[in-house]
Amino acid sequence: MIESISFKNVKPKFIDDAPAGASSMVWNCNITFNRGCSYLVEAASGRGKSSFCSFLYGLRSDFGGNIIYKHNGCGALQHADCDFQLLRRESISMMFQELRLFPELSPVDNVMLKSNLTGFATETEVRGMLERLGLAGHLDTPCAVLSFGQQQRVAFVRALCQPFDFILLDEPVSHLDNENAAVMSAMLKERQLQNGAGVIITSIGYRMPYLYDKILNL
To answer: Global pTM?
Structure first.
């Protein structure tokens, strides 16, 4: 179980210094994200928001500094020493900004394809979650014909349907109305309370309505 994730003077190798008048609370800083807490990471375009997500999720390592994953009872691991295939299956979930759905598959099949890897949710449970987000009439429709906002809701449910100590949501409500954003927020809160997970949400302007413990500028 991951208890915390710490950024130690992390900075993407391709990002210049912050513009005049701007300051980062993440890059080139020491910041710890704790399990059970909720964080909003806000960034202007080009400040490395998606890179931040990719570093944390173990998809990229082109940064200076270090990222430390502290495990309960097992000490701490540096980014370079982590088995990210295992972490992404058991400890860290992510909703990508670009969603990464299989367009030829239905919402149900997209979610079940992931959920079946861990046996996390039944198809009945998945259908209920999708219906709660207003997708009852599209459960078996190929995702390719859904709107981006509908696809966002599918990707969100897929991110929920696995074990995790931390969940990372990259601009999860950018194409949603207030009603669907509120439902998504309620579902996320239920899951966070269920297993004491850490929540990290990014935004470039339109915030997901959530009770944040800390808001950080990137």
So the answer is: 0.94
